């Protein structure tokens, strides 16, 4: 899973990774790994926040 522009350090993109030690969320740009508390907050925010819907422009509207 990806979270775009959510890194608390650099504003980069986060990715959910797993290895033999478990799962972690890290930034693709700066490499920062989120703490367990930050991971929990990120995942809870994803569940609680409704997806924003942007209305599509109508054809012929100027």
Alpha-beta content class: alpha+beta
**Domain tally:** 1
What percentage of residues falls in helices of 4 or more residues? 10-25%
- Radius of gyration over all CA atoms, rounded: 16 Å
Counting DSSP H or I runs of 4 or more residues, the number of helices is 1
Query: Outline, from the CA principal axes?
Result: elongated
Order of helices and strands: EEEH
Total beta strand runs: 3
On the 0-100 scale, what is the average pLDDT? 85
Strand arrangement within the widest β-sheet reads: 1-2-3
Binned strand content = 15-25%
Head-to-tail CA distance between termini = 38 Å
Low-pLDDT stretches are none
Largest sheet: 3 strands, antiparallel
Give a concise summary.
This protein has 62 residues and is of the alpha+beta class. The longest helix has 13 residues, at 36-48.
Task: Give a verbal description of the structure.
This protein is of the alpha+beta class. It has one domain. The protein has a 3-stranded antiparallel sheet, with no helix packed on it. Strand 2 and strand 3 form a beta hairpin. The termini are far apart. The model has no long low-confidence stretch (mean pLDDT 85).
Q: Could you outline the blueprint of secondary structure elements for this entry?
A:
Layout: E1 2-3, E2 14-19, E3 22-27, H1 36-48
Task: Jot down its keywords.
62 residues; alpha+beta; 1 helix; 23% strand
């Amino acid at each position: 899973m990806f979270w775009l522009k959510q890194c608390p350090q650099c504003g980069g993109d986060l990715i959910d990774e797993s290895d033999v030690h478990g799962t972690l969320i890290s930034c693709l740009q700066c490499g920062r790994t989120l703490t367990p508390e930050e991971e929990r907050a990120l995942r809870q925010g994803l569940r609680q926040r409704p997806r924003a819907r942007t209305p599509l422009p109508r054809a012929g509207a100027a």
